[in-house]
Every structure is written in C-alpha cells, then in structure tokens.
Amino acid sequence: MAAGAAASNEPRLDAPITTKWRRRLTGRLEGHATPVDNRQIADRLEAFASLLELSDANPYTARAYRRAAETIRGAGLPVAELVRSGRVRELRGIGRGIETRLRELVETGDIAELGELERELSPDLIGLGRYLGLSTKRSVELARALDVRSAGELREAAVAGRLRGVPGIGPKTEARLLEALAREGEPRPREGLLLNRAWELVGGIAAALDGEPAGDVRRWRDSCEHLAVVCAAPDPGPVLARFGSLPQIVAVVDQDERRAVGVTVEGVPVALVATEPERFGTALVRATGAPAYVAELEPLPEARDEEAVYRALQVPWCPPELREAPFRAEPPALVALDDVRGDLHCHTTWSDGRASVEEMGRAAKERGYDYLAICDHTPAVGAVRGLTADDIRRQAVEIAAANEVLAPFRVLRGTECDILPDGRLDLPDDVLAELDWVQASVHGGQRMPRPEMTKRVEEALRNPYVRCLSHPKGRYINRRPENALDLDRVFELALEHHVALEVNGLPDRLDLSGDHVRDALRAGVEIVCSTDAHSIRGLGNMPLSVATARRGWATAAQVVNTRPLSAILEKPR
Ligand SMILES: [Zn+2]
Ligand SMILES: [Zn+2]
After folding, report:
1. Which terminus of the chain has a smaller tally of CB atoms within 10 A, N or C?
2. Which ligand is nearest to the CA of 533?
3. Residue 111 CA to chain centroid, in angstroms?
4. For residue 469, how far is its CA from the centre of ligand 1 (angstroms)?
5. 496: CA distance to ligand 2 center in Å?
6. 379 by DSSP, 3-state: which?
7. How many angstroms is it from 441 CA to the middle of ligand 2?
C-alpha cells in the first residue's frame, strides 16, 4: 500500500455496491440439506435478527434472536439434536417463538420469513439509506416509488433525476441526497458512536477476523467516527469475503484488492485493511493515528509490528491514546488499568442503582480492588430517589454489615451530593463530616449562564468535606452540550481546597474529557477515575475512564484512586 493510503481507506460512494446478502441469508448452506452445527444455526438466527432490526420490528424481538444466537454459539451440545428431541427450550433465552423458527430451520434448512423480509427490505439498499440519513421506512417507500431493488439502482435513479418525481421529496431533499451520494471520502455517521458501542462493534469484527482494532476506537476517542480493523493476510481474498459475511456488516460499499468498507445496520462505515504480514505494523500505525499525527511520521518504514516501525523511525513507541497531534518525544508513563485500587463513585438500590451495597462491594472486591465508595444520590437530584440525612445514617448500618463480610476489602460511606442552584450542598455539614468520601454534583438547572454556574460550583468546592467534583462539565455525548462553566476558575479553587476532578467513565459522559484532563493536570489538579456504576456490570466501565485520563496524559501519581485505602481515608484538610 502506498504512503498516504490512510486517506484512501475512505469509502467511495461512486463504487458499485456489492452484497452477499441473498446468498448468505436465503440460500441453502453449501453441501448440507440442513444446517448441522451450532455456528451455522447461530449465524442464521443472527441474520434474522439483523433483518428484524432493518424492518423496524419490535427491537426486543431482534434482541431476543441475537441473544438466542449467542447462547447457541456457546452451547456445548449439538442444538440440532436438541431441536429434534424437543428439548431446545431448556437452553437459556429460547422460548416458544424461537423454538418454532429453529424447528423450521433444522427441518427445512431455511426460515421462510427470512426470505420474505429480504425480498421486501433489500438490506444493501437500507444500509445505503441509513448511510444517507433515511429511516428504514423512508428507504422502503423510496424504493417502491422508484421501483428500484438495490442500492446501485437507487443511485442510478437519483443521478438520472428521478428523485424529484417521488411524492414528499422536494428540491431541497433531492439536493441533499444527491450531494451525499456524490460526496467522495469522509462519509461518516451523523454522530460518532459512543466508545462502548464502538468497541463492541470493532472489537467483535477484529476478533472474528483475527485482526486488530484500529482507528478512533484504539485511541479511545469519546465519540468514534473512523472505525477500522487491520488484518495480516498473505492472501486477502478469504478475509475480505469473511468481512462481507459478518453479521455486523449489512453491505460492503467499497472494495479493492486489500481493503473494503462495510456499513453496519446503523449506517456506520467500518474499514477493513488486509495487509501483507511484512507490513502489518505499518498499516496498523497508519490506521490508528489521527491524520495529523500519521502525516508527520510519514513516510513510514515497512515492518511487521508497530514497535519495529517506531524503532526504524528512531521515535519512542507512543501509546495509541496520545496519537492525536504530531509527537516524537518520549511519552510519560501513563496511568494503567492495573494501577487503579478502587472505585470511588457508584450507586446502589438505595437510589437508582440495581444492586445492593454488599453485591456492589463483592463485585468490586472480585475485580481486585481494595475499596469502593457508595455514592448514592441526594433528594435534590429529582428524577430518581435521593437519600436524606436519615437514609444516609441507615445506610451506614448496611455498609458496616457488608464490611464485616468483605473485610479486608472496604466499602466506603459516600454520597453524590447535589449542588443546589445557590451553591449550597443538599446534605448538612454534620452528615457530610461522617462520610469517608463526598462527591459533589450539578444535576438540575444546568442551563445557568456562565458566571452563575461557575459561582455555584465554586461554592461547593469551598465546602471542607467535598473531595471530588463529579462529571464537571455535565455533558451527555451527542445529547447535551457542556455546561457553561469556567474551568480555569474551577481548577484554581480545586487546587486551593484539595478537591479532585472526576473522569466519569459512563460511556455517554466521559467527563472530564481527555483535553480537559490535560488542562486540569497542567493546573496541578488531581483527578479520580470512576465508573459511576449503577449496576455490577457498570463497574466494568473503568477502562473507559482510565483511557480518557490517558488521553489527558495522566500518570498514576496524578490519579487519586491509584493510592491505598489509607490515603483515601486521610482527609486532606
Ligand atoms: Zn451524577
Ligand atoms: Zn452518580
């Protein structure tokens, strides 16, 4: 692949759409009258789930089929046998409806409705529609009105000027669609994918193809637009073919000898690079870094792995999270997941969490942590239950009981205390004084003008019991912009009053962001990597928080919860 090939990894919309859907979904499996092994059965159910999603059917139905596919893939017994002997419903997640489909599949080798859906929906066309920002319903209407059957035919009809004859399509919409169809390069989802979803998607594809995740995901960007997988393949043919038949990919929109671009059911493009093994490292560096970072390193030498590429460049290896702006120096030793000794922000059934104090504590202990702070909400949070002073004291009894069982692991008494609009806290100081860890949060009234919002937060930072400011900017990625808050002023106060700033690990928050972490650390402020878990599973978001801190160049010494319990219990003033 030539230098600068990263740019040409972009899909080109003028390329013919290739799709293997018809054969993959409705054709009989080669060499077998019926699907025989669990993987084949699971693939068919997965395909059915994708089509159900495309048809705007009840999303729970599609999800049930996906879950059933997962169960079957992992089942130790031949599922076809279970179906024949009438015992398949003993498997988790297989109900009567799915059993009926399975019987049809095992007995006839096909699911008739799957074929019908496919004829009605033409997945490549729907995939292209989503890519252009059309709903499934709208794409189907458009296809009917234009009497087209495929994405290629839709493209031809549009270019021939036939769109304007379709009811409901005005000159503006036509111009927008034509422009989108003609645009070369840079086709992106309207909004980036959240990091957890992007990892699930790209990680899943990489695992299925025995490749490496690359692009925005590998740099742990908070919103991922450039999704890529790099595979080492002496012969790219089989890898490209498998890519096109993955359940995650509904249509391949561009392909050449060693790369392809597929789109997901949401219309998100994913690039596959199938490189010669001798150049794998080169391709990975190119597909991982931000364009400016890669461009500054070019021309890249050819090498099998990344380390060798960097060695040949005489540049120290750079963690992917830092590959944004050009950088050739020795990177700092960034904080790592293993450095984290506890989680300082989580919820339980006392407020809006799904697990009890003891269940959360046990799960944190099983993660290898030394401590976990229970930080349930206070009444002013509004939308969900909040704990009063009395509740907090009753919760102390439950926390003490959990500590009896879990020692030497320590469940800490904490709170996520609302900051009221005037800057006062939602719990009296005598209660806060009893607690091991106090988070302060702005929840309601976030549209305040900047001076008022800044003053509100400043007041809270002056409270002697506050240890950490939660999700300081209050953003929800793709949903709500950041609060108007003077962060520089917050840094000053935080430094003066020994308050740390949170890097909230909820995938739709990631707040502070990497850039803001960097600003905070430059100002001398410490950070906390927390999950804000509302369930046992939520504790698993720590990698998102740590990676965001790494994007802000944080070292372990700058992250409060890399320290032992004794340091957490020591109040700084
Ligand atoms: Zn909160
Ligand atoms: Zn919270």
Report:
1. C
2. 2
3. 32
4. 10
5. 25
6. helix
7. 8
User: What's the pLDDT at 10?
Assistant: 28
Residue 242: C-alpha distances to residues 28, 205, 237, 502 (Å) = 17, 10, 9, 42
Can you spell out the DSSP letters for 78-98?
Answer: -HHHHHHTT-GGGSTT--HHH
Residues 6+ apart with CB under 8 A from 120: 55, 140
> Quick check: 212 and 229 in contact, CB under 8 A?
yes
Q: Please name the residues in contact with 134: beta carbons below 8 A apart, sequence gap of 6 or more.
A: 142
pLDDT > 90? residue 43: no
CA of 532 to the centre of ligand 2 (A): 5
Write the pLDDT tens digit of every residue in 118-160: 666 776 777 777 777 777 777 777 888 888 877 778 888 888 8
Neighbours of 303 (CB within 10 A): 20
Which residues, in sequence order, are CB contacts of 17 under 8 Å at separation 6+?
A: 124, 128, 150, 151, 152, 155, 251, 252, 253
Stated pTM of the model: 0.75
Distance 63 CA to ligand 1 centre (A): 29
Lowest mean per-residue pLDDT among 102-106, 279-283, 351-355: 102-106
Judge contact between 250 and 54, C-beta under 8 A.
yes
Letter for the amino acid at 59?
P
Q: In sequence order, what are the residues at sequence separation of 6 or more whose Cβ sits closer than 8 angstroms to the Cβ of residue 125?
A: 139, 143, 148, 149, 150, 151, 154
125, HSE (Cβ side, Cα atoms, 13 Å)? 29
Instruction: Read off the pLDDT of residues 54-84 as tens digits, 9 standing for 90 and up.
Output: 676 677 788 888 889 888 888 888 899 899 9
Q: How many residues does the chain have?
A: 573
How many A from CA of 375 to the centre of ligand 1? 9
Whether residue 239 contacts residue 274, with contact meaning beta carbons closer than 8 Å, is answered with yes
Is residue 10 classed exposed, middle or buried when 0-12, 13-18 and 19+ CB atoms within 10 A define those classes?
Answer: middle
What pLDDT shows up at residue 383?
Answer: 79
CA 7 – CA 271 distance, rounded (Å):
11
Q: What is the pLDDT of residues 519-566, one digit of tens each?
A: 999 999 999 999 999 999 999 999 999 999 999 999 999 999 999 999
